[in-house]
Design brief:
353 residues; mainly beta; Immunoglobulin-like; Jelly Rolls; 2 domains; 10-stranded mixed β-sheet
């Protein structure tokens, strides 16, 4: 009798052990999927938390961050300095997921030119005609010729880019032997404040000076009553060609007349690991009454406080410019190493409010 009881006891114990081990194996075999969370335009390293039915199950600091999650519904929480906490619901359903969140304000598209038609939209752009030497001792003349500015479609005809082409007539490296284009939206597309962005592939070479910028609509060169710099200027992107570092550096600047009515400029720059001409990049500003923020590919690299009264000229509408200059006081001039033609490709230009 005693032996039979022990046999029953050990049999039951063995059964329980088998059940526990089976449960553990089943638990460990639950399929996991990768959730990648990217925080756009973060000004500091964010903390990203994952909640399952209001219970926090994971928390990491970084950007981007990956979590391994099983099937189910989760709440993602983004905590970033200077912004309110933002949450997003996500469903994991037998696949990896990637989400992008912007902790800042929500933007709506106010205007855009995607350059996806065969012809330049004249309701958006004017080809400004200016002789060589008009500004900064630059060597190029700006023309209204379609040889210097045009739309180029991709091979399937579905996506285009505006091309600004700087050309050389092979008559000597001096003023007047180069042509290019200066595209402006004056009296067509004008905005005060917002996010102004463009996706651009810049040219390269000694003396080549591409720019994406804005001028006050009251400037006298386009019919206004205010001379530069009293109208204000915002350089969203400038890049001067030449040395290794120059080709990797983007500049963002404001030009203005200070309270002493003297010309002044303030700006910042960012140097990356490769030539900016190697690929398309998104250049943008976020502009409001308090500040202008410059970003390269969504990452802030300079912020300028605009609350000082000397910045009053920036409390007005501005228009957009895109151009490629050849030579000038700042970049210097082309030499035997500079290859022509040089082209700047603009995939799109967008304004958000």
């Amino acid at each position: 009798m005693f032996t039979t009881k022990w046999k029953l006891f050990f049999g039951l114990l063995l059964f329980l052990i088998i059940m526990i081990l089976t449960a553990c194996v089943n638990e460990g075999s639950i399929e996991k999927y990768t959730l990648t969370v990217n925080v756009e335009q973060a000004t500091s390293t964010p903390t990203i938390k994952v909640y399952d039915d209001q219970e926090e199950i994971a928390s990491q600091k970084g950007n981007p961050i990956q979590f391994n999650l099983s099937n189910g519904s989760y709440t993602i929480e983004i905590i970033t300095d200077g912004y309110p906490t933002k949450t997003k619901e996500i469903l994991i359903n037998d696949d990896n997921e990637t989400i992008s969140l912007n902790p800042g304000k929500e933007w709506s598209l106010a205007w855009a030119d995607e350059f996806d038609s065969l012809t330049l939209d004249s309701s958006n752009w004017t080809r400004q005609v200016l002789p060589a030497g008009t500004f900064n001792n630059e060597w190029q003349a700006y023309t209204d010729s379609s040889e210097n500015s045009y739309i180029q479609m991709d091979t399937d005809g579905n996506n285009g880019a505006m091309v600004i082409e700087a050309k050389y007539n092979d008559q000597g490296l001096e003023m007047g032997n180069f042509t290019s284009a200066r595209m402006i939206t004056n009296e067509k597309v004008e905005y005060q404040y917002g996010k102004i962005a463009a996706r651009i592939k810049v040219p390269e070479g000694q003396g080549i000076w591409p720019a994406f910028w804005m001028l006050g609509t009251n400037i006298d060169e386009t019919g206004g009553d205010t001379s530069w710099p009293y109208c204000g200027e915002i350089d969203i992107m400038e890049k001067i060609g030449g040395s290794n570092t120059k080709e990797k550096t983007v500049h963002g600047t404001v030009h203005f007349a200070n309270e002493a009515n003297a010309y002044e400029y303030i700006g910042g720059s960012k140097t990356i690991s490769e030539y900016l001409s190697a690929d398309y990049h998104v250049y943008e500003i976020e502009w409001n009454a308090d500040a202008i923020i410059w970003r390269l590919d969504g990452v802030e690299y300079h912020r300028q406080d605009m609350t000082d009264p000397m910045f009053d000229e920036f409390e007005a509408p501005f228009y957009i410019l895109l151009n490629v200059a050849v030579g000038g006081n700042w970049p210097g001039y082309p030499d035997a190493t500079t290859i022509f033609p040089q082209k700047m490709y603009i995939d799109w230009v967008r304004v958000y409010k």
